[in-house]
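Exercise: predict the fold of this chain.
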Amino acid sequence: MAIHTAYTSGSGAIPTITCVEDTDIWIPVLLVDATDGITGETGIAYGAMDVDYGLASATSLTSYSVDTNHWKEMGEGLYALKIGASEFSSVGKYFVRIGDTSPAAGKYLVIVDVTSSTVSDIDSVPTYSAKKATDTWIPIMLMSKSDGNTAVTGVAYGSMDVDFAYASATGLTSYTPATADWKEIGEGMYALRIGAAEFPNAGRYFVRAVDTSANANKYFFAVETTDATIDDVAASSLNINDVPTFSAKKATDTWIPVLLVNKSDGITGVTGVAYGSVDVDYQLASATGLTSYSVATADWKEMSEGMYALRIGAAEFPNAGRYFVRVVDTSATSGKFFCSVETTDSTIDDFSVNVGNTIPTFTSKLSTDSWVPVRLTSDTDGVTAITGIVHGAIDVDYGLASATSFTSYTPGSGNWKEMGEGLYALNIGASEFGSAGRYMIRVIDTGATAMKYACVVETHAASQDDLVRATTPGNTLDIDANGLVDVSKFNGTAVSVDGTTNLLKVDVGAISSDATAANTLESVVEGATQLAVDVTKISGDTAAADALELFVETLTSGKLATGSFVANSLNETLFADDCFTNAQFAATAIAEMADAVWDEATSGHTSVGTYGKDFVDKLAAILADTGTDGVKVDLGQVMGETHDDLTVGYALYIIYAHFVHKWTTGTGSSIVHKADNTTFQSRTITSTNEIQKKS
């Protein structure tokens, strides 16, 4: 049984994976039977999981609550755990312990190496390991060459141009993958099988995979081949060969996870081992003996269940290479712990910060020269600044992001400046950036001492200064959190603020190129004068503009002068149905209009055909007929045979005669006599509708 079997649920050595700090990742988990250490345990739900984690330098583990979205089962004891966004907040090595509370499965332990950047972040070449002369499947990610982010799918094996070479070779060798050697997984992910005939030697191989359809970027990776794999080594010897491997920067302290288990069963974690009870030795892999390392209290941390952390490296790992580290419990309770530390001149974080593979982006105005910062570092370590590169020793190319090739640019002496410490400036753009968009710039040291430098320049039709003001800015334009702008000057003239309204006091003459016109406008606004304005210059409707012009030209002291409106200009379409019932309007204007109507002198109504003239005339006629003391009746009014045909006077006389004179009636006739008894009127009664003597 391997020394770590109980803590890896059957895998032997503690697996190590990498991720970026403060980022969720899916960790593969294998849960096997706690009894036999082989049989995969299935059906373990997220609620049955006890998950803890801790930085290698911590003294205890922290519990992690798993929900349904953080736990997936794939079958045969294979699961995946999502963790990291809030848990891996620091750069370093984390222990993650996964336990089945049922408990059917053994505990699973994994180490997560957390960095501030990933290989993808820095566009670094990924490295894989393989056994020489043996086929291995290599992951490949194909991303759009246009934006570097969009996954390219549907690339068949026949569209792949694959080349490889031993690191010491001077040229590449073509590899033709068959259909069985190329698999598409989805979302730009593929797998390439290579190695049996291609990697005959132990060492490092470069492999280049090119999409011949030219949709995807080239993909580069390295393969480190060995005579034997870890499994070969583990199968051929004892527990000591379950050697975990960590990475570190040379001459720099690093925390190494250490697992101490009982030497009798190789399973039970040994706790309570103090720093003074450990014997630590180390040495470079090429050395012939070990060197002792004295552990101080600050260099040793216990987290529980046999998990510890050892700090080592600043003085112990001075060179780039592979170091062995041996940790021995001097109480002889636990077995020895072995690990390997691969030290390099630079870490991934160094490359992320110094190499500049995260392509910087600058802005510029199109068709305008601008100075672009350039940093040149050693192509050996990616850190050391390269100085003394003159303009004639650089190869500069540029191209719009949508282009299919670069265009060469030859900088003159005046277009290349060195500032020191690998910092340079390149003047480019007047003839090169003719379109608005993103331009790629590549700078190559033809002396081959510096790494290639790449950057992006985003060009725009106008610069920030163009948008703010046309002259050289003299004041800062401040915009607060509410989107309000603090302006101290208008066109170079300081402004004052009214203490009551908090509004700007503006001298109109100071903001106009025509001081005379501005002063005139100011006078009009203040009500002192009239201003003639040709509003046809600002209106597409000449008639409407002329009407407005007439209005403005007749504006005097804030009031409309006589003749302000043309004939029929105030028609019913200008007023709402209820505008005269508006409270603010009715309170004064309606009353004033009513008063004005009734107070109008009759002498003002002399036009024939007007209601005013007709009303005055009829009123005069009525008064002429009736007088002022009573109603006068026109006795000459004609009435008919019936009452409609008689005059009023005639009818009244007949009635009067009935009482004063003699009114006689006989058969078929009616006679009214005068005072002298002569006949005033004789009338034959022929109809019952006419007047008859009532019996």
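Check your answer against the key: The chain has eight helices and 43 strands.
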